[in-house]
Fold this sequence. Notes:
With about 70 residues, this protein is α+β, with helices and mostly antiparallel strands. The chain has one domain: GMP Synthetase, Chain A, domain 3 (2-Layer Sandwich). Helices cover about 30% and strands about 40% of the residues. A hairpin with a 2-residue loop joins strand 1 (about 10-20) and strand 2. The longest helix has 14 residues, at about 40-50. The two termini are about 20 Å apart. One of its GO terms (biological process) is response to oxidative stress.
Amino acid sequence: SKRSIPADASITAHVGIGQIPGGFGLDIDLHVSLPGLEQADAQQLVDAAHVVCPYSNATRGNVDVRLHVTV
């Protein structure tokens, strides 16, 4: 179902680099703010977006991504 994204929604990405077996790797913390939504609805929206996002699909299994959702 379609949901409206709040006009003041924001996403902040923190990208790190560190050693992994065999070289170096990235890890990402995505801080998503969706003011005005219920926490469960916001989390569901972010999780669904993460499943279909082309960047997420390209990096899945290669980059550790953590999603942090606030309302």
